[in-house]
Design goal:
It is a single chain. By secondary structure, this protein is α/β, with parallel strands linked by helices. It contains ten helices and 13 strands. The strands form three sheets. A six-stranded mixed sheet has the order 10-9-8-13-11-12, sandwiched between helices. Strand 6, helix 4 and strand 7 form a beta-alpha-beta unit. The longest helix is centred in the C-terminal third of the chain and has 18 residues. The radius of gyration is 19 Å and the shape is globular. The protein starts with a strand and ends in a 7-residue tail after the last strand. 41% of the residues are buried. About 2% of the residues have low confidence.
């Protein structure tokens, strides 16, 4: 059995990671002032945020064409793969996964298993990397999916955004009505709801400094509830200086914990806007037996 791993550009894997783990990355289209760009191919993260400052309308995103996905899967079949596990951003913020679920049964020459990560960003990238490691070890698709479900259940994250404008206009915030009144005066905390997997705002905080402090408190509480070692991920949206400073602070608080940094690229930046920050965590998968 030969298993291919596919994900999309919102995993924000580096070129080195893509090559090392043989992961195929599908770019998500981003539309700015009517022009479409393929994330990671036609537009860099830096260029996106520059365009965001001068765009005449809010940017939007769309799905990769299903026809192109079928061509990709068939190409993988021609390369000798008999199965592909296609890991993609949460179905609650994109219809991409649902589109793949509909088309997968019609592809005859390769078994296509769409997988809803129920998350996005580098957290999803970790799932793709672990799936690739297991495929290399000869694990079955069922074993890989079971492991991904288990690892995914340990993921949690907290976002701090400058405002909710992009999320509200894009319809990606499920409880927007409760927060719109003070939209310009607060730094809302957001997360993916454990039950609905939708982005929800759950606390109103008056300053970014206090918001970050509150995230640290919630992270400390989360650690007390877990029975396994955690690793942390600090994510920034066009603010690497703030991301680095926060990562250093988290490292000072937890010197023995693995702490990495990543970023919100164009697709996720479209919804979170400029200067967003997040702290995410999950089980330290480097200690897992695959």
């Amino acid at each position: 059995m030969k298993i291919a791993i596919v994900t999309d550009s919102t995993a924000y894997l580096t070129e080195a990671e893509q090559q090392k783990y043989h992961i195929t990355v599908v770019p998500i289209p981003v539309i700015i002032d009517g022009k479409e760009y393929k994330e990671g191919d036609d537009i860099t993260t830096e260029a996106f945020y520059e365009k965001l400052k001068t765009s005449h309308s809010f940017p939007s995103t769309s799905q990769p064409p299903v026809g192109e996905m079928i061509e990709l899967y068939e190409k993988l079949a021609d390369e000798g793969y008999d199965t592909v596990i296609s890991i993609h951003l949460a179905s609650t913020i994109s219809g991409f996964y649902n589109s793949l679920e509909q088309v997968a049964p019609s592809i005859d020459n390769i078994r296509v298993i769409p997988y809803d990560s129920k998350i996005t960003v580098k957290l999803m990238g970790y799932l793709a990397i672990q799936a690739s490691k297991m495929a290399t070890l000869g694990r079955t698709p069922e074993q890989i999916i079971h492991y991904l479900d288990d690892l995914r259940s340990t993921i949690d994250e907290l976002f701090v955004v400058d405002d909710l404008q992009n999320l509200v206009r894009g319809g990606r915030l499920s409880n927007a009505s409760a927060f719109i009144g003070g939209i310009l005066k607060i730094k809302p905390l957001l997360t993916f709801d454990d039950k609905s997997n939708e982005i929800v705002a759950f606390e109103k905080i008056r300053s970014r400094k206090k918001a970050l402090k509150r995230v640290e408190e919630l992270f400390a509480q989360a650690q007390q509830r877990t029975t396994y070692p955690l690793r942390a991920l600090v994510i920034n949206g066009n603010d690497p200086k703030a991301g680095n400073e926060w990562a250093n602070k988290i490292h000072e608080l937890y010197p023995d914990m693995k702490i990495e940094q990543s970023y919100f690229g164009p697709t996720i930046g479209t919804h979170l806007g400029d200067k967003a920050l997040a702290l995410a965590w999950l089980r330290d998968f480097d200690q897992d037996q695959l």
